[in-house]
Model the fold of this input.
Amino acid sequence: MKSFLILNKQQVHKITDYLNGHMPMEACGLLAGKNDRVEKVLFVRNQAQSPVRFVMDPYEQLKAFDWIDDNELDLLGIFHSHPSGPETASPTDIAEAAYEVIHIICSRKNGQWKLRGFWIENREATEVTLQIVD
Ligand SMILES: [Zn+2]
Done:
């Protein structure tokens, strides 16, 4: 289990801008980097086009995985938004978590996004620390 992930403020802004641009639908993407530090944010189309559900477009996801490999980075996290949902991983998120990475839930309240990270294993989500640096 990984217990923390480091992102910088610019990456967080990039994510929240993207999420705002896809309101009221859920939006998603991947975080790649090294040693628990995110170096690249990759957006992946939400094939479900739904306000309460996300399914990564398999072709775009594959392309993103290739990019991560080509750049010798690791997949560190997967993020998606809950435009009007809970701050925590939903039962569906837990059931469908397919990768051993940190799952970031971006929830929206009063026009502000809040990011929380979870490690999902054995059908259980444990909160991890998201460290936001300058
Ligand atoms: Zn979710």
User: Anything to note?
Assistant: The helical segments are 9-21, 58-70, 91-96. The mean pLDDT is 96. The chain is about 25% helix and 45% strand. The two ends are 26 Å apart (CA to CA).
